Amino acid sequence: MTRVVLLGSSPGPDTAPTGLRLAALPGTPTVAERLRGQILSLDPQPATIEPTDVAAALRALADVAESATDNLLILPANSVVHDELIYQITKAKRGALALIAKEPRPETAGEEAEEAPEDTVPIDEAEPEIGEHRLEGLPVRARAGKSRIVSVGTARIRVTRPNAILLGPLHLKATHMQTLADTCRELAGMTDRFGPDDDLVQLIVFGLVRKGVSVGLRGRRDLFYRRVTTQGEVNEAGTELIGMNEDRARLDNAVKGADGFFTTYFVSTYSRFIARWAARRGLTPNQVTLISIALGVAAAACFATGERPWMVAGGVLIYFAFVFDCVDGQVARYARKFGVLGAWLDATFDRFKEYVVFAGLAVGWVVSGNSDDIWVLALAALALQSTRHLLDFSFGIANRRKPARQLPTLALDAPDDRSLRRDLEQRRAERSQGIRGLLKMWTRAGRFRAVHWARKMIVFPIGERFAAIAITAALFDARVTFLTLVIWGSVAAAYTLTGRLMRSLA
């Protein structure tokens, strides 16, 4: 279970016990009622902290963090937010994650612009400043990089070129609880460095970043979040909230974002709609998995005949076996039905379908009057794929045990972030040398679309493997299929093994 901390009480005058109401939503709930209903499944008894006295609020949060045994979600109580956004934030893999909004970049009109935008000065030469701009009512005092918060300032502590605000939701894994508690207590003793417009969430992230915690970031994307303080803001928020398609965002989130080329363009474009159809009719992920297994066995039976029409039918069936293999995970993520049995079935029977198809292809080749040496190729393909899966599993375990490289730290009372940015630049330079430099260069190359998809395809993921089986079996014969699997699989094994050795030595 996730521990939830609500910062502040519901907005609205005390004379209106129901608070500010979201008239655009069914039942016209108050902001507080709706938010508490949303977090009920996370924490039936959330802690509420009043931020009127910053020092007292920080100490109260430290007490909550020390007593927490699970992950922690910090959320302003005047938040209007989609359920799906809360879900995505709490299910993120990052140890710490903050919802942000970036300040729009200044627009210029070419030669007609009266002055150059501020960020024409290289950031390495920029002077730290007190963020005076405001965005959505919050001071812009955070510097957001590509994947994490680089630095945060306060009303009296300068930050280099602030470009973002911390909207409010902050999720921390249990491993950061003691750091959060210690940081909050230290911050409580230096309230003279803060101003009346400093936001409490901003101060928390300020402390965490200076303590070396990697705080990841995410934007709202196609979901809604806003803090509200007046009835007018509540009315606007309610209208915007229902005007956005939360179900479509939930459906899109059910599709893995790091799939291969074939899966992305030839399966996920429509499989998500099958997943939604199945989920709305009560089909469980395990039932969809059984459909995938049945299709895989049927494909193997077709291949075992060795006859061309049945080989084509087998190719079609193995394709749809893979489609439903994707659908079962999408149903689980869309319907939020996860289980150990489902994960085990999915991982185990992916291999079963693949190997039973190998057997079907070999049998079909032999019954068609060809030599039985096809079994050598079949066993070679099976052995190669089994070895690759073993290496994937063992590397994943070893990689999880590898300690994360510590980020630079900075004293909380340092007047600006110069030394922190200097240490980060030194860290970046060190990571750009030797094997790490090569890996970083290869990672950067992924920004080019052709390289990105080439890297996805060369590792011969399951989508490409099933596509190769379906196409070569339908158009050619089992020998061509096995040769494709062995040759492409060998290239993929060499590529992944080289990369993992380099990452192990880096």
From TrEMBL:
It holds the Pfam family CDP-OH_P_transf. The keyword Transmembrane helix applies. The chain crosses the membrane at residues 312-331, 457-476, 482-502. The keyword Cell division does not apply. It comes from the Bacteria. Keywords: Membrane, Transferase, Transmembrane, Transmembrane helix. Belongs to the CDP-alcohol phosphatidyltransferase class-I family. This is CDP-alcohol phosphatidyltransferase.
